Queue: 3 jobs
Job 1
Amino acid sequence: MIMYWFLIIILVICSYASTSTSANSGGRVEYLPGFQGPLPFYLETGYVGVDENEDAQLFYYFIRSESNPDDDPLMLWITGGPGCSSISGLLYEIGPIQFEAVRYNGSLPTLISTPYSWTKMASIIFLDIPVGTGFSYARTKWASRSTDTLLSVHAHEFMRKWFESHPEFVSNAFYVGGDSYSGIPVPIITQLISDGNEAGNVPYINLKGYVLGNPATFPGEINYRILFANGMGLISEELYKSLFQTCRGEYRAEYVGTSNIGCRQNLDFYQECIDGIEEPHILEPYCGNPMLLIKLPTRKLLNDPLSSPSCRKDRTQQAYYWINEASVREALHIRKGSIREWIRCNPDLNFTRTVYDVRPYHLNLSNKGYRSLIYSGDHDMVIPHQSTQAWIKELNYSVIDRWRSWKLNGQIAGYTESYSNKMTFVTVKGGGHTAPEYKPRESVAMFKRWISNHPL
């Protein structure tokens, strides 16, 4: 009988230990299939349980700064979507490795080092969020749901728990970053962390600010696509003036009345003019339906004569062929049975949009004195730089460093303007919707100067 109760106690302890590990588990990755030799940087992957009963298991990739991780800043990075895996940020934008730029030939894609990683000067946590994104998963159907607000709450809870298991980074300067749709949750997450600090939450997070690229911010930004198209010569001056007169500056379909025939006709002419334009970067080849960017590619695409290596979707497809390999999943410490088939951007995410305008968050964070870097690839038509400049101007802070060019190696790399609320706006010349993906050299120079408190 004594032995029986002893075994019961051991089982309870083991069960508790297993649950605790499940809530916040991680492990170092020293080798990755497709990369020759040991990784030249510290990579850790793992899960952190959030939500009620920790039924939402959030997966992350953590890369220590390659310079001085003890003192360098730490940043939480969230890829847009919503529902796009943070592997997009890691392998295509700001991480230390990327796929070799060759057409897929049926073998495991090759990974190579890149000198343009933001981890050269900062530690970065690439988080798969909301739940259902990448390798993050829900243990119950109820836990699979998410909204803008719930996503942000989960991210805040994630960071507090992550710091509990990584106390050596608690004192590092901390930033929240992301691009595209992450323009919505990043300011909310930053606000939640700030409020948590003020409320005395433990651990105290050394929040310093946030970073956003071509960020979604408010519903009216779609109207600036017309202004962008005119400025880039995609539509005629006559059509631009006619659009403005008939639509009165509001081009969203839901706001154009059925009786406004002139506006609707002009919008049809506008759509004809931009048909065949690659909106994330208007100078890139048009590669067909953008939904190909988020769906699992088929082997048929390998022999598609219309699929050129110059199409960016060919490069994003490499992630599918790589990450769905059993050896890769094992190396990344992916829990067996948690995600059957990895999808870069989940089109079936159980997500409800609840926040449409985050300008009040930017204003509040500005009033609290947090730093912010807002950058725009200037050839992006999805979130044009004009719309970003517009809401920044609406914050009504004085200019302390007026509009000017910034340079790299003696060449103009873009333009910048800084404001009294510690906000810096930057354009990346020639950049697209995710500027570091298109202009890595310029983007890493921009980030390095800003994060080091140096003028651009």
Job 2
Amino acid sequence: MFEMLLFAVLLLLITAQMATSASHVHHLPGFEGPLPFHLETGYVGVGESEEVQLFYYFIPSERNPKEDPLMLWITGGPCCSSLSGLLLEIGPIAFAVEEYKAGQVPKLNLRPWAWTKVCSIIFADLPVETGFSYSKTPNPPRGDYELVHHAHQFLRKWLLEHPEYSSNQVYLGADSYSGITVPPIVQEISNGNERGLDPWINIQGYLLGNPLTTRNDIDYKIELAHRMALVSDELYMSWLKNCIDSPNESSCSRVKDYYKKLSSGINVSNILDPKYCDTWVPPKAIEDSWMRRSLVENFHEHLPPLSCESYPYFLINYWVNYEGVSKAVHARKGSVGKWQRCNDENYVKDIPSSFEYHANLSKKGYRSLIYSGDHDLAIPYFTTQEWIRALNYSIIDDWRPWLSKGQVAGYTRTYANQMTFATVKGAGHLAPEYKPEECFVMFSRWISKKPL
């Protein structure tokens, strides 16, 4: 009897350890000296039998982790590792802008405008089989709804293991394709709170950068192209007539084909960037009208020019697969093969639009920040403004510039549903890549509940 009881206790301890495991990372290959900030990595088991093991990187706020908000960050894609957000956008370290030498580990530097200066952030590899996340069973289901349910489970289990953050205000953050999945996650968290699930999550709202919201978002590239003088008035008027006002399938198809020819030399991630900055992306990804280089899972073996914003996207694959990196971040040996930044194989896009979730969350009074780099042709700011207007809330702070260092950094408008829309002047698809200091100013003001 005693032996059986002892076995049951040991089994429970082992299961609990597998459900959530965390390790402190002191050093990273490519970064000189010990990390000057706290970095925790680990796994959280989700699913009925915790067969899905979700990997995360956690960095407490450098200012006041006891009181500053906590944010769960999910990178877009779909199915791109959250390490993208950490290393390429908003985390405290970034790749050094220098020529990469084959066989050497890419160098890392501190990022002066890290969002972790004012907010604790969990960077989670979602969905399963993204980054270092894996399943103990083969061919796990992967799709929008699975991602939503797993993210919800992940956050509650993570908070159970980190009770010191149980009272912190919680936000979700994401960009690009995750504009589809984050609003449903927030709604599921809210519904779970109302059902009395434990632990209660102090959810306050969410922020989204250049978010995909409906599958129709991509149709409005011609609108932005016209505003940016990339297409003629005649083509624009033909698009309005044949694709919007009185749709005619054959005529609309001809308009779109002509538009593709006119824009074939344009970098859709940022119309100001040279096209050759995207030449290292597989042709199929370039052809996918709303896709961008940051959403692609395979890379050509040659580097883009060092001046390109795309350069770090080459480095990240080589850095993670460099000998010793997976061990340094305490990834479980043998759990994944060669690390890929993005892996959308067998992923089901089964949430067609997140608009209804925005509407529901607005009724519940959650805060939101929706921002757009105004030179993004992949998911134009114009289409984001359209669905925000469709929510039909009154404006309480009308269109005005917001400033960084006394200069116009973009324009903003705030609505009665506590939704703030902001443009980031001169930025592309993932705005913090292009305007890191300005985006930090924008984020730090909003997360502190101050006007932009």
Job 3
Amino acid sequence: MSTGNGCPECERWEQRFNELERKFDAIVKQLSETTAKLDEVSAKLAAATKNSSNSSKPPSSDIVKPIRPRKPSGKRKKGGQKGHQRTVRPTVPEDELQWLTQYSYEQCPCCGGPVTTDTDNPVSRLQQIEIVSRTETTEHQSLASHCAACDKTVVCTIPPEVRKAGLCGVELSSIIGFLKGTCHASLSTIRKYLLDVYELKLSRGQLAKIINKISQAIAPIYEDLLGSLRAQRILNIDETGHRDSGKRMWTWCFRGTGFTVFKIDASRGSGVLLDVLGEEFNGIIGCDYFSAYHKYRGLTDCSIQFCFAHLIRELRFLQEHSTGRTHGWSSRLLDAIREMFGVIHRREALGRRFDGELEDAAMEVLTRARFRVPDDKKARNLSKRFANDGASYLKFLTTPGLEPTNNIAEQAIRFVVIDRKVTQGSKSEGGQRWLERIWTVLATCSDQNKSLLDVLRTSLEHFFRGQRPPPLLPIG
């Protein structure tokens, strides 16, 4: 800026103005840089404060868990409370006892006189259970027989089921499979256990062969359960990472009615869903908001119930790390969701008014999600979800037996996560097949209230005889 009139006073004001303008531009630039750094630090701080209550992170990832305020409990004492029914272990019947030891005096401990057994007084009992740590070795010999009539010598063959079992019988093989599958034990740990407890020395190579036999024995059970997924009306699905010799893979969990199936695959995409469920699947899938489920829904006639727990955690995170309109919008939406579930919990008390109030509460959730959305990226994305998939979040309201969350799949997959942390994954394709089969049988045994050891024992007996094992799911 220049006046051009040669006035000294005007030139001083002009210089002063230019100096202030330069300072102002510098301050604006510094403020912009500071604001950008503050936004970056705020984003990093928000990411660092994510935990299982405001994100999809598992509870095990919470390094320092917040201390929950204790509810006032009065003078309640520890242990069983007054009126609580005592649980007493039932005694083993006498005909099932292996040993019976009785104690009685041969003479009176007071005066030394003769005594007789008094059968009128009740007997004091103490039953003690012990494990007998021993092994039994059976040698199977193939003997030759000579026929005098035809003058031939024939050798009787060892039964094929015995030869197929090899060094370790059904019971020992089942215990090895149980330790490997349920207890997350390594081959070295199993080897040490057998050596210390049973004085039985087996090589790691021999143990690996036994695990492979068990994997083949339970393979038909796994294939039957895998094939049963396509007929399910409701399926809850989740996935987690898996390592195979350092390579990143994925473990998929499919939880149906009364059974659970795991599948290890190199892909986390919708192709896995197509391989497992096919293009004709028309049931309902409970899952998180991962893109693979969106794509699979577009390729089939299936329906989706998106997990409400994931959504609530995202809204909590937005509420905790925002201010102004964004904080108010997320708070109001959380209040509407809380009120909707409150109506569900008051179903019996509401009686005939339940359907109407539930419909109003659900409509309120959709309205608040799309009304006066703040200019925040995360808030806009969440609002867009309700606009596009609001029906998929609220499908549980009109579908009997459908849960609003994907918790049952997440609960089933926790064992897999623990196993991954302990064993560091698998090292071959055979290891992948073993893990998905034993995890499936283990989880389904838990769903069906069956003993895994009994299932392994029965499967091996049928496998050694060349037969299919009985199914885990009830027929019909």
